[in-house]
């Protein structure tokens, strides 16, 4: 597999290091002279100095082949967005993955069709929320391309859903319970699955239906 990585910071260098160890062909693009010098000592001619938003730099890295993947992991969201757009729309790269530094910018990536993104801030907040969930609901995984998300709902003792079967619950249109974790064991949810206090329920739903799902599984907030 051939991969172009744009951005030679700690993330980019670590990704390249791992890809090389797995036997993949990689070109790393870094713009800053000082950082390029350091990377060149480790990776040799696998590092290219230049601005990855410039087409001639990307072409020098071999984007015209095209590569199997382009990873844009610079510290600038605008640059990452431009790099992925050039890769996908200009050169038909099958997979372009972008680092999103500011979660508020995610909507711009979504709007322009860059749906494969990684945001460390969002991931960390998700882990924090899992330990202290707001109203018992945690967003686990956005499926942006499908306009869906997977959420986890922790069922409290006072939930109006306790004791009810799934086929007795009136879930919002566009939401579906997919599994129930109980006593450390998960089972695929079916109509006859009964909801118990302490269950961890995974649901698939369209973004924006979180509050409706909360009301069904958790009741009205205090």
Count of discrete domains: 2
Rounded to an integer in angstroms, the radius of gyration calculated over CA atoms is: 22 Å
Profile the largest sheet: 6 strands, parallel
Mean pLDDT comes to 87
**How widely separated are the two ends?**
53 Å
Return the string of H and E elements: EHEHEHEHEHEHEEEEEH
Shape from CA axes?
elongated
Structural class: alpha/beta
Oligomerization category of the chains in this entry? single chain
Q: What is the percent of helical residues?
A: 25-40%
What are the segments in which pLDDT stays under 50 over at least 5 consecutive residues?
A: none
Number of helices: 7
The CATH topology of the largest domain is given as Rossmann fold
Number of strands: 11
Write the layout of secondary structure elements.
Layout lengths: L1 E5 L3 H12 L3 E6 L2 H11 L3 E3 L5 H6 L8 E4 L4 H15 L3 E5 L6 H6 L5 E2 L1 H12 L5 E7 L4 E7 L20 E8 L2 E4 L11 E6 L4 H9 L4
Parallel strand pairs: 1-2, 1-4, 2-3, 4-5, 5-6
Antiparallel strand pairs: 7-8, 8-11, 9-10, 9-11
């Amino acid at each position: 597999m051939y991969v172009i990585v744009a951005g030679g910071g700690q993330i980019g260098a670590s990704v390249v290091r791992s890809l090389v160890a797995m036997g993949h062909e990689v070109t790393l693009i870094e713009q800053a002279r000082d950082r390029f010098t350091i990377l060149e000592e480790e990776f040799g001619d696998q590092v290219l100095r230049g601005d990855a938003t410039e087409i001639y730099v990307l072409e020098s890295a071999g984007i015209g082949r095209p590569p199997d993947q382009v990873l844009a992991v610079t510290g600038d969201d605008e640059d990452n967005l431009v790099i992925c757009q050039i890769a996908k729309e200009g050169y038909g790269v099958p997979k372009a993955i972008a680092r999103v530094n500011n979660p508020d910018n995610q909507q711009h990536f979504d709007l322009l069709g860059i749906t494969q993104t990684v945001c460390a801030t969002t991931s960390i907040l998700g882990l924090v929320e899992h330990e202290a969930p707001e109203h018992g609901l945690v967003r686990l995984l956005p499926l942006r391309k499908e306009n869906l998300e997977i959420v986890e709902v922790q069922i409290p003792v006072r939930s109006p859903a306790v004791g009810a079967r799934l086929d007795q619950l009136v879930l919002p249109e566009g939401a579906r319970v997919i599994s129930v974790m109980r006593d450390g064991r998960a089972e695929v949810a079916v109509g006859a699955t009964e909801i118990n206090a302490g269950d961890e329920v995974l649901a698939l739903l369209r973004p924006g239906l979180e509050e409706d799902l909360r009301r069904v599984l958790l009741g009205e907030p205090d």
